[in-house]
Amino acid sequence: MGESFEMIAKTFQGLEEVLAEELTNLGANDIEIGRRMVRFTGDKRMLYKANFCLRTAIRVLKPILRFTAHNADEVYEAVKGVEWDKYMDVKSTFSIDSVVFSETFHHSMFVAYKVKDAIADYFRDKTGERPNVRLNNPDVKLNIHIAENDCTLSLDSSGESLHRRGYRQKTLEAPLNEVLAAGMILMTGWRGECDFIDPMCGSGTLPIEAALIARNVWPGVFGRHYDFEKWPDFDPELLDEIYNDDSEERTFEHHIYGYDLNVYAIEVANTNAKAASVTKDVTFMQQDIANFVQPEQPALMITNPPYGERIGSPDLLGLYQTLGERLKHAFVGNSAWIISYKDECIQEIGLKPTKKVLLYNGELECKFLQYEIFGGKYKEFRSEGEKLNKEEPVVRPKLQRKPRREELFKDKEPVVVENERYYGHEKFKEWEQREARKAEKLRRAAEAEQAEKTETDSAESKPKERRSGFKSDRKPAGFKGKGGFKRDGAKGKRDGDFKGKRDGFKGKRDGDFKGKRDGFKGKRDDFKGKPKAKAESYPERKKRELKEKLMNNQ
Ligand SMILES: C[S@@+](CC[C@H](N)C(=O)[O-])C[C@H]1O[C@@H](n2cnc3c(N)ncnc32)[C@H](O)[C@@H]1O
Predict the structure, then answer these.
(1) Cα–Cα distance measured from residue 199 to residue 291, given in angstroms and rounded to the nearest whole number
(2) How many CA atoms lie within 13 A of 514 on its CB side?
(3) CB 198 within 8 A of CB 258
(4) Which of 56, 63, 162, 188 has the smallest number of CB atoms closer than 10 Å to its CB?
(5) Residues with CB under 6 A from ligand 1
(6) Runs of H (alpha helix) within 276-422
(7) Could you say which DSSP state residue 135 is in?
(8) Are residues 52 and 192 both part of a single domain?
(9) What separation in Å is there between the alpha carbon of 289 and the centre of ligand 1?
(10) In terms of domains, do 278 and 185 share one?
């Protein structure tokens, strides 16, 4: 066992307990549940395993400094006092995420600037040069968290969010996040003891995550990369060892089914299942929920019907009624879990839930409800009398939107939190407008400076001119320009196309998951082709570049 240190696994609200259980099973120590995170200790192996094996963590942080600060200067001084050479050098690029819950610090971006300045000045004082900020795929990603006056500065060991397993090749509207899907499954207690059904599977996230859980295949097997691989103390043999260890995988005796009305969803789900090498365990078929029949084998159902937010349905309430009716008549003796958003929809299911869990699907506060379907005793657990009697006309209430978050927060005292969107807060809005004006001023100054630089550069070097003069010649992401200029977003390791990798996998996982990685024993880098990087859109790239420019010009 190597040197033990503290780590923080971040997750979605509502998944903290499942994450803590996962950590316990991995052998982590000193596990402590917080809000949207779980704190634990362990050594370097545990850090790698946490990234590789956890299904319900979004990222894993390694705190390197804790301090108390009452103003921005104290933040600056504390951060400047870190021995930064241990983590990066002047050539390294870096980025800072800031999360602030504080009456003292109202502006998370300002805190990020202070941390950036402190690191830049540390190196400038020592070498006369400063490292550059890079928001997209930096060498070192840092996270500063401030709760009132307590500050924690951490290294982000994951980099890209851990929900990006690497198997999603195609997507549809409103797919479930993989971390949320896995958390929902784990929460039900299912580990593959019976069949699994998602009758509205969309791109197949729930069935695919279920297949990985059933065989206990770690989500890291798809060969994605982690930011700790860029750290000076990276141990590639240790990561290879974890990658090649399939000793905890198990057999799965049952089957997983995914259905959807949309034939294209079935195509997408099949493509993703193939990429995840779970086709042996999962069958996708086009089917309207109205035609759902009693499964021959005992089964657990977990499903995520449309909420009428991003995905609608010509008769949303009718869809929920049909779902309830099918559960009642064609899922007898089984247990079903449904995640949904609007109470009006949930009521139409017409069954009384046996369990309710509050979960966030993106920004939507959802309910994850369990229904135990007992044979022949329907009336006893119906929540609302005889509403579904076919003879009576069904009067459907008009759909009512839940109050949006801005309404909920309207009268609250000002708190500014990055990633916590306190929309509609008057003071926050004023601040936003002020910040927007400041940013616009800086942007104009930066553009003027850039224009000046472009003029000078153009006299000397053509490619440089092309990069800075990209304005007039806009092309979509992935465009390879005339002069061979390739966009930043398309560069880098992960450009590998999934194609090829899967082919390498073929045969191996399609038979039995066992021996899956035998073909890959050795280095992870033998695993040809890397998960696709998310294509950066033109506006995203421009926004990132501007932010970097502002950070670097400060
Ligand atoms: C919110 S999406 C599910 C997303 C999915 N969990 C994923 O991760 O991609 C809801 C799905 O229900 C499907 N659907 C809508 N009406 C249906 C019906 N009557 N029968 C079966 N599926 C239906 C839609 O086609 C859509 O794919």
Answers:
(1) 10
(2) 4
(3) yes
(4) 63
(5) 172, 174-176, 199-203, 205-206, 260-262, 265, 288-289, 304-306, 311, 313, 319
(6) 316-330, 343-349, 378-381, 405-409
(7) S
(8) no
(9) 9
(10) yes
Domain, as residue range, for 221 = 178-225+249-382
Of 173, 172, 141, 143, give the one whose Cα is nearest residue 159: 141
Asked whether residue 403 is domain-assigned, the answer is: no
Same domain, 114 and 207: no
Are residues 489 and 368 located together in one domain of the fold?
Answer: no
114 Cα to the center of ligand 1, angstroms: 46
Q: Do 135 and 191 reside in the same domain of the chain?
A: no
Number of helices followed by number of strands (H, E) in the chain: 17, 14
CATH number at residue 357: 3.40.50.150
pLDDT tens over the chain, length 554 residues: 789 999 999 999 999 999 999 999 999 999 999 999 999 999 999 999 999 999 999 999 999 999 999 999 999 999 999 999 999 999 999 999 999 988 888 888 899 999 999 999 999 999 999 999 998 899 999 999 999 999 999 999 999 999 999 999 998 888 999 999 999 999 999 999 999 999 999 999 999 999 999 999 999 999 899 999 999 999 999 999 999 999 999 999 999 999 999 999 999 999 999 999 999 999 999 999 999 999 999 999 999 999 987 665 678 999 999 999 999 999 999 999 999 999 999 999 999 999 999 999 998 999 999 999 987 544 544 444 334 333 343 444 444 444 443 444 444 444 333 333 333 344 445 555 665 666 666 667 766 766 665 555 444 433 332 222 223 232 323 323 333 223 233 333 333 333 333 333 333 333 333 334 444 444 555 443 334 445 666 667 777 777 777 777 65
User: Which one of 325, 351, 382 terminates a domain?
Assistant: 382
